Amino acid sequence: MEVTNTKRRHLRYWNFQKLPDDFKVQPGLRTTASSELTRFQNFVKYCPPFDIVLDGLNVAKMFPKARESQVLLDVVSQLAKQNLRVLVLGRKHMIMPSARWRKDEMEKVQKQASCFFADNISEDDPFLLYATLHSGNHCKFITKDLLRDHKACLPDAKTQRLFFKWQQGHQLAIISRCPGSKITFQDILSYDTVVQTTGDSWHIPYDEDLLERCSYEVPTRWLCLHQKT
């Protein structure tokens, strides 16, 4: 059930230079102040490629009972310990001291990661995708957002399917967090979740009835059929 080398090459080189330009005209970027958009584009242009791009506000709110700045710090610290170049995308209210956003914790975040705090972004996702694609195929991103709006804006069904496959191979999910302990990430699968055959056998991915999962998550169950001889 491994992805073929041809598919890997197709996805690896799939429009990585073209897509950032495409996202410049998406609704989320159109509604952003031109000065802020220019500031962001220059920021990304002059930064070295990133390994991980975080939707900071989204990640910080993944565990509602915990303080947002502490959650974000835990995630960034763990990634930084792996010598990964991390970009945190957020909003300026995150660096205004408050009960939910402690100054000392946010200062630690900024010491361990590059950070871009926007004044007023109607949508964070286009910035997240722009920075990820600009950094190259090795770069992963973290957000709980399903990115449905962006798939819907792509020009045709083929491009939407390719984006979905790219999303599956680049969007990291946080499974759990223990205070003061390790963040658990869901591994990105190395195989493709489509019907696969070896000639006399078939492997069909499926979901249990009523199972809910994110669009970038893949079925974990397979129906295996073998032709009788």
Automatic annotation (TrEMBL):
Name of the protein: PRORP domain-containing protein
Family: Belongs to the PPR family. P subfamily.
CDD domains: PIN_PRORP (cd18718)
Entry keyword annotation includes Metal-binding: yes
One GO cellular component term noted in the UniProt record for this chain: mitochondrial ribonuclease P complex
Keyword Lipid metabolism carried by entry: no
GO molecular function: metal ion binding; ribonuclease P activity
Main location, first listed in the record: mitochondrion
Annotated PRORP domain residues: 30-224
Naturally occurring in which organism (per UniProt): Molossus molossus (Pallas' mastiff bat)
Keyword annotations: Hydrolase, Metal-binding, Mitochondrion, Transit peptide, Zinc
An annotated GO BP: tRNA 5'-leader removal
Location of the protein in the cell: Mitochondrion
